Amino acid sequence: MKFNKIWIAVALSWCWWIYLGLTSQMLVSGDALGYHYLADMLNQQGWGEYFTTGPNREPGYPLLVATSLKLGQWTGMDHLAILKAIQLALLGCAQLMVWRWLLLLGVSSTGIMLAVAYIGFSPALLNAALSMYSEILIIPLWIALILAHTCWWQAIMDKKRWLPALMPLWIAVIWLACIAIKAIAWYVFLMYWAVMAAVLVWKLPKGTHKRVLGGWVLMAAIVVGSIQSYTQLQFLYNGSRMLTDRGTYLFYANAIRRTAVLDRQKVLAAVTAVPGEGLCYALMRQEDCLYWGINNQDVIGFAQLAALQSQGYKGKQKDDRMFKMGFEAIKTNPPQYAFFTFLEACKIFFWESTQVSFVLYPPWLKELYVNGMVKNAFRLVPAMAGIWAFIVLVLRLWKLRRAPWGIQELSALVLLLVIVFVAGMYALATLVVRYAFMLGPLWVGLWALAAQRRRIFK
After folding, report:
1. Coil, helix or strand for 333?
2. How far apart (Å, rounded) are the C-alpha atoms in residues 203 and 6?
3. Cα 376 to chain center, whole Å?
4. Measured on CA atoms in the order 424, 426, 427, 431, is the torsion positive or negative?
5. Rounded to whole angstroms, how far apart are CA atoms 164 and 166?
6. Which long-range contacts (CB under 8 A, 24 or more apart) does 61-65 make?
């Protein structure tokens, strides 16, 4: 059969997952404690308490952890083992959807095999599947989003009657699921929708504008209406209109430290921290690297939150005040703020890592992952491949800007928009590596698509 080698790659990766699932331990520490706490709250006190004590973290992942807790109670099994099994299944779904997506785009069987194999053995993606962190839940949804766009554009090109108008409703459901897991997806959606609306007006075949654009507007109405209803629910219960509790202080803290008066060493520390904190600590002073670390961000942000609370600010008043102070800080030095924000966004290329933690691996694998040559290769090679693929596809879309687009071009555009807007939104705060690797399968697809355009697999 033509795709035997792809099934072999899938089977080998799943055997590897079973081994890691049985021999690795999920560590409940750091932010995972917060997810576990919210899961317990949902099971014992329900959604009323979740909203009353909010805004809390996004509801999607705590609901998954709560489900594993319930299943553990019913079956007598360890809920962490159940959670690992569910999350490995989610990664398997992402892997199979990448296969289907690349097949639709005409990628060769060799390219598909390499793509699904990399997803199966990627240290970052397996760390996501074995950790109690929300990134694993959104990983298959990003792929589902790209796959839905690909099928939708194919239906438009085939001049189907109703499918082009109805598919945006399914895309709206995927976006709502993404937002329920990562609030940042709400802002990504708004930017993506506006850009795609302009592209549709420009690129749609004749005779399809009315149906397709009608579905596109209806999609926006569904997503916006649902999110506004949710934020109104938050306001009624806890006085805040935020989707999550983390946006305001992160924005403020990074506006403060990026616009401060900085010496040359701190600027160089920011540059060397782009590929990873390890490089910064190897080349620069520890205090300069710590300045750009996530702990310093929390110190700055939480201190201001406490100050506002002591002054009587709460709910929406507190959120508005934090945003206002952040924007006031940016106004003091916009070029410097823009420079450091751009540096932060560049971290999106360095998503692969063997050093993410949150999982206790078998001793031999842990020793392999800390090996300097191994960890640096996993960090550098995918990043360089991502930069190359990004440039290849941007140039390809620019070259074909006046030509009709097929499903490859539309998929590439949606891919690039999601990556750019996610990077841009996270850059307003701190883009730690576990935020970046939720886009891992998108990068793998980007590599395969760029390689196909360059005929590397032929």
Report:
1. coil
2. 34
3. 22
4. negative
5. 6
6. 61/35, 61/133, 61/134, 61/137, 61/181, 62/35, 62/38, 63/39, 64/137, 65/35, 65/36, 65/38, 65/39, 65/132
pLDDT of residue 1: 40
DSSP letter string over 97-129? HHHHHHHHTT--HHHHHHHHHHHHH-HHHHHHH
CA gap 116, 122 in Å, rounded? 10
Cβ contact 393:412 at 8 Å: yes
Token representation of residue 368: 């392999």
Supply the pLDDT for residue 133: 93
In tens, the pLDDT along 348-361 reads 999 999 988 889 99
What are the extents of the domains in the chain? Answer: 4-162+350-453, 247-343
Note the residue count of the chain. Answer: 458
| Residue range 295-313, pLDDT digits in tens | 899 899 889 888 888 888 8
- 3 state DSSP class of 144: helix
Conformational region of residue 239, where left means phi above 0, alpha means psi within -120 to 50, and beta covers everything else: left
Would strands 359-360 and 25-26 be described as parallel, antiparallel, or unpaired? Answer: antiparallel
Peptide bond into 55 cis (omega under 30): yes
- Ranges of residues in the chain whose predicted pLDDT is under 70: 1-3, 457-458
Q: Which residue has the tokens 């999106």?
A: 348
Does the CA dihedral 14-16-20-23 come out positive or negative?
A: positive
Residue 38 and residue 12 in contact, taking contact as beta carbons nearer than 8 Å: no
- The pTM score is 0.92
Alpha helices in 76-208 (DSSP H): 79-104, 109-121, 123-129, 135-157, 163-181, 184-203
